[in-house]
Amino acid sequence: MTDTTFTNHQNPSFLQACLRQATTHTPVWLMRQAGRYLPEYLATRIKAGNSFMGLATNVDYATEVTLQPLDRFPLDAAILFSDILTIPDAMGLGLSFGVGEGPRFAHPVRDEAAVAKLAVPDLDKLRYVFDAVTSIRKALTQADGKSRVPLIGFSGSPWTLACYMVEGAGSSDYRLVKTMLYSRPDLMHRILATNADAVAAYLNAQIDAGAQAVMIFDSWGGVLADGAFQQFSLAYTARVLAQLKKTHTDSAGNTITIPRIVFTKGGGLWLQEMAALDCEVLGLDWTVNLGRARAAIGGSENGPGKALQGNIDPNVLFAQPDQIATEVARVLDSFGAPYQGTGTGPTHIFNLGHGISQYTPPEHVAALVQAVHQHSRTLRA
Q1: Domain range for 152
Q2: Count of domains in the chain?
Q3: Which of 55, 96, 175, 228 has a CB 3.0–4.6 Å from the CB of 224, allowing a cystine?
Q4: Is residue 286 assigned to a domain?
Q5: Which of 197, 169, 45, 54 is nearest to 110 (CA)?
Q6: Quick check: is 36 catalytic?
Q7: CB 76 within 8 Å of CB 27
Q8: Residue 239 falls in the annotated catalytic set
Q9: Catalytic (active site) residue 202
Q10: Which of 37, 41, 61, 164 is catalytic?
Q11: Where residue 97 falls among pLDDT bands split at 50, 70, 90?
Q12: Which CATH number covers residue 134?
């Protein structure tokens, strides 16, 4: 029997909300919550030779930086410290991060010969990720055996990975990857099929290592035209989800539900189509009205529907704390009072509409988390 009561968690609110169960407050975590806005992260990175991959590939450092935001803020979930581009790196594309620069591949995939070489990588090349997951889970386990907060594993979506693999780095216009998409769609489909199978294997291995939820970051799905999004992004995200484990049996023999989250930046136009994905949660960017999304896909009491995650503009965090609290209340009020019964119904997980900026003052994050917890409890009163 599948356990959906989460008795092994001190704070199960995130997992409960993922499954559309009632919670005492709206759970909150932040995309990129472990990162450059924290001075302790920067100190750990220096210990790792000021290298991002030096952090990500070292189990102890990855564990340390994953826990750092939890030690500062009463967040309701942890997310693995890693990068979405570990899979193409394991495919041999040569990932690097220059100081002050984004990711770059030494061997971008731009012709038929390069595409023909692609294959689902040997997961042993990603053992450092799975070891970090296990280490973080151990660090989150308290003396009473309960997990402090749940741990989220993640990957980039097949399309988002393909953008970096073809462009060779970040892009402002996606010219190279879109040129391939329109001129050689056969090659693009071959890349995406390989990526989808690799993402599924990678996330399943994270689940086996201890991840209690998994998230697919379709960060660049929104740059596609209507029609292209469905064919080149949505279809391959669906291919990943079809292969993902929905449950995991823990060491005590309990079968645990593993929520699956899909976030497409700029995907609000296709919300109804995304609602058909075989996942529990849809993440929304700041362009989407939560109330309308709830009415469209949030479902009703004890019926099908998606939990919603999001979606305050990350730049709100540069305002003063009282203004942050006002914007938090506006987002929470736009969703409305979450479900409070004993079955299932519409629920909300508070997050940013995209990743936190490295320039964000940490004390403003504290103000946001406090405002989410306080105002969401007021909504339930």
Answers
A1: 34-74+77-245
A2: 1
A3: 228
A4: no
A5: 169
A6: yes
A7: yes
A8: no
A9: no
A10: 164
A11: confident
A12: 3.20.20.210
Q: Is the pLDDT of residue 212 over 80?
A: yes
Residue 170, number of CB atoms within 10 A of its CB: 13
Q: Which of 36, 110, 184, 190 is catalytic?
A: 36
Contact 167, 174 (CB under 8 A): yes
Q: What is the pLDDT of residues 266-275, one digit of tens each?
A: 999 999 999 9
What CA–CA distances, in Å, run from 282 to 246, 318, 353? Answer: 16, 26, 12
Distances (CA, A) of 65 to 60, 213, 313, 365: 9, 19, 24, 16
- Average pLDDT value for the chain: 95
pLDDT in tens, 141-184: 999 999 999 999 999 999 999 999 999 988 889 999 999 999 99
Does residue 207 form part of some domain?
yes
What is the distance between the alpha carbons of residues 66 and 79, in angstroms, rounded to a whole number?
7
Task: Identify whether 171 is part of a domain.
Answer: yes
User: Which residue of the set 20, 32, 104, 260 is catalytic?
Assistant: 32
SS3 assignment, position 154: strand
pTM of the predicted model as reported, rounded to 2 decimal places: 0.96
Integer Cα distance of 80 and 90 in angstroms: 18
CA dist 42 and 296 (Å) reads: 42
Of 20, 37, 76, 83, the active-site residue reads: 83
Alpha-carbon separation of residue 60 from 64, 65, 81, 128, 319 (angstroms): 6, 9, 11, 10, 34
- What share of the chain has pLDDT > 70, as a percent? 98
Mean pLDDT of 214-225: 97
CA distance 6 to 257: 9
Choose the catalytic residue: 20, 41, 45, 260: 45
To the query of whether residue 164 is one of the catalytic residues in this protein, the response is yes
Is the pLDDT reported for residue 116 higher than 90?
Answer: yes
CB-based contact 269:292 (threshold 8 Å): no
User: Does residue 97 sit within a domain?
Assistant: yes
pLDDT band at 100 (very low <50, low <70, confident <90, very high): low
